[in-house]
Amino acid sequence: MIEVNKVSVTYTGLRGVRIVRNKALDDVSFTVPEGSVYGLLGTNGAGKSTLMRAMGGIFRPDTGSVIIDGRDVWNNAEVKTDICYVGDELSWYERFTVGELKTYGQNCRPSFSGEAFDRMVKALELPKERKISRLSKGMRRQVVTIFGVACCTKYLLLDESFDGLDPAMRRIIREILTDEVCDNGSSIVLSSHNVTEISEACDHILLLHGGKIVESGEIDDICDRYRKIQLVGSEGNVSREMLEKAGIAVLNFMGEGCVAQAVVRGTDEEVRAGVSKLHVNPVETVPLTLEEVFIYAMREKGYGKINAEK
Q: Do 2-221 and 225-300 have matching folds?
């Protein structure tokens, strides 16, 4: 498995005459279980690509470590043979034709499967003799993704692998990942800011914002930690303050008179225990979707917040 232990990364640059330091990752720790499809989900600039590069042994963390199967990935050629990292920058691949990329993989990766590569090229109807630089953005993304799959490594790290793909092709790529990778017992790490892709492709996620972890774990468990509730006051109006005084973490509140709807953090048992202290009746309590969790958790951090609450 992959263990990320207290990883922090800071970029240093110049802004005018001033030295500016930007902390891209801040004390990040989590574990990718063996055989899982793990999603890195976050806002723009959250640190997803930096984290992927640290996991692939491309960046050395300022502090902390990335351990893969008990071995530190940094400056370790042996462990890197078990990893294939496909980044979001495609220009490196553009020197090859599709066919030449296969030859490169066979020469540089002992585990590379030319048969699997050919099978996927045929299924996607990719032109083998055309330079990758002359393909559309979506086709370039298809080529590099199937290249990563064909490497047949124990760990496959895909940074924004669905970027530029139309909905039909996204589904096909997800099926390829399942058929060609999961059947081999590999572990996949996908990064994206697209909630739908992560929710449909992954079983575990890490939610990042500002270089820090907001949530991590199995998707169903994370969604169950947030709930939408409808309330009716039995003795007057329902207010946000009433819920917060009862120990309920309120992320969003809309109310009019004795009827209210709120988005809160907590399991069904925790929310009902808090509501039981008040003179209100919960009409309904349901878990949020992953997209709703993303929106409200990010809004709580001040990202994309609008003044729409009453």
A: no
Tens digits of per-residue pLDDT, 101-126? Answer: 999 999 988 899 999 999 999 999 99
Residue 63 to residues 26, 159, 218, Cα–Cα distance (Å): 9, 22, 27
What would the two tokens of residue 52 be? Answer: 């992927």
User: Would the pTM count as exceeding 0.70?
Assistant: yes
Cβ count near 77 (within 10 Å)? 7
Kindly list the domain boundaries of the chain, sorted by start residue.
Answer: 2-221, 225-300
Torsion sign, CA atoms 258, 259, 262, 266? positive
Q: Is residue 299 within 8 Å of residue 252, measured between CB atoms?
A: yes
Q: Which fold has domain 225-300?
A: Alpha-Beta Plaits (3.30.70)
Measured from the Cβ of residue 282, the count of other Cβ atoms closer than 10 Å reads 17
User: For the domain 2-221, what is the CATH superfamily, name and number?
Assistant: P-loop containing nucleotide triphosphate hydrolases (3.40.50.300)
Q: Each residue of 174-204: pLDDT tens digit?
A: 888 877 777 777 899 999 888 888 888 888 9
